[in-house]
Amino acid sequence: MAEYAGALQWAHIVDELAESVDRT
Q1: If we measure between CA atoms, which residue out of 14, 15, 11, 13 comes closest to residue 3?
Q2: What's the CA angle centered on 8, arms 12 and 17, to 5 degrees?
Q3: Which top-level group of life is the source organism from (predicted)?
Protein backbone atom coordinates (compact mmCIF):
# COMPACT_ATOMS: atom_id res chain seq x y z
CA MET A 1 0.00 0.00 0.00
CA ALA A 2 2.85 2.39 0.77
CA GLU A 3 4.29 1.84 -2.70
CA TYR A 4 0.93 2.73 -4.25
CA ALA A 5 0.74 5.96 -2.24
CA GLY A 6 4.30 6.82 -3.28
CA ALA A 7 3.46 6.25 -6.93
CA LEU A 8 0.41 8.51 -6.65
CA GLN A 9 2.55 11.21 -5.02
CA TRP A 10 5.13 11.00 -7.80
CA ALA A 11 2.42 11.11 -10.47
CA HIS A 12 1.11 14.32 -8.91
CA ILE A 13 4.59 15.86 -8.71
CA VAL A 14 5.39 14.94 -12.32
CA ASP A 15 2.04 16.34 -13.43
CA GLU A 16 2.74 19.69 -11.76
CA LEU A 17 6.25 19.77 -13.22
CA ALA A 18 4.91 19.10 -16.70
CA GLU A 19 2.40 21.92 -16.24
CA SER A 20 5.03 24.47 -15.25
CA VAL A 21 7.21 23.40 -18.18
CA ASP A 22 4.21 23.70 -20.48
CA ARG A 23 3.60 27.32 -19.46
CA THR A 24 7.18 28.38 -20.16
Answers
A1: 11
A2: 20
A3: Eukaryota
